[in-house]
Design goal:
The protein has about 70 residues and is mainly alpha-helical. It has 2 helices and no strands. The chain has a domain of about 30 residues.
Length: about 70
């Protein structure tokens, strides 16, 4: 178990890099909204996908915390 801890420590920064990636995706969707117009429903769905992806990151992060506590 002592060997697993440093492994998790390496996992955390990896997740940290994932978050800004999502942040870059959001403005992209903002540009699409004005471009699409009629396809705004498609944009909304894509936006929800972004939110879900973000939640996935949070869950992954919580999973890391839980693993760490264990």
């Amino acid at each position: 178990m002592g060997e697993e801890k440093p492994l998790l420590g390496e996992e955390k920064p990896l997740l940290g890099e994932e978050k800004p990636l999502l942040g870059e995706e959001k403005p992209l969707l903002g540009e699409q909204k004005s471009l699409l117009g009629e396809k705004s429903h498609y944009w909304t769905n894509k936006s929800h996908y972004w939110v879900n992806k973000s939640h996935y990151w949070v869950n992954k992060s919580r999973y890391w915390v839980n693993k760490s506590r264990y």
